[in-house]
Amino acid sequence: MRLFKKAAGFVAAAALFAAVAPAATAAASPRSTCYGGRVCLYAGFDYNRGQVDHWRDFTKDDSNFADNNWLNWDFSNSWHSMNNETSSIRNRVGCSSTLWQHPGYTGAHSTFTHNSNDGFLANNAIGNNRASAIDIWCH
Ligand SMILES: [Ca+2]
Ligand SMILES: [Ca+2]
Ligand SMILES: [Ca+2]
User: Fold this and answer.
1) How many whole angstroms from 94 Cα to the centroid of ligand 1?
2) Where would a tag sit more exposed on the chain, N or C end, judged by fewer CB atoms within 10 A?
3) How confident is the model at residue 31 (pLDDT cuts 50, 70, 90)?
């Protein structure tokens, strides 16, 4: 009886693990949720839904994306430059933030208020695949 209980417990634990494993994988990147205190940028439209999950988040200004790589879904380095590739954005940083076309905060730009989302930058002044710098106003 004691042995049976142990075996049953193991089966239940294994079933639970199988059930939660896919959800844990999906929640690893901010594809569905951008964490508070950050601006999340995505290489694809619609926050990378259905696409390769290249993303990166920022807590303060960055004047030049040329030395930044996208992260993968599991937070590992994609070794793929994020310069001129941003296609969607979520702002959870607590203030407005501006994407700029050129390094050093020049050229075309678009500003996104706190708690805003834009899954399609092609119809914004910054445009698709052009952002090279981010200005976060609260710092
Ligand atoms: Ca892109
Ligand atoms: Ca848009
Ligand atoms: Ca650019």
Assistant:
1) 25
2) N
3) confident
pLDDT(5) > 70: no
pTM of the model: 0.79
Cβ atoms within 10 A of the Cβ of 77, count? 9
pLDDT exceeds cutoff 50 at 136: yes
| H/E run at residue 39 | strand 39-42
Give the ligand whose atoms come closest to the C-alpha of residue 121: 2
Query: End-to-end distance of the chain based on CA atoms, in angstroms?
Result: 63
Question: Average pLDDT over the chain, rounded to whole?
Answer: 85
Over pLDDT 90: what percentage of the chain? 74
Segment holding 13, helix H or strand E: helix 2-26
Q: What tokens appear for 90 in the block?
A: 């979520």
Ligand nearest the Cα atom of residue 116: 2
Nearest ligand, CA 87: 1
What domains, with CATH codes, occur in the chain?
Answer: 3-136 (2.60.20.10)
Token representation of residue 115? 């708690």
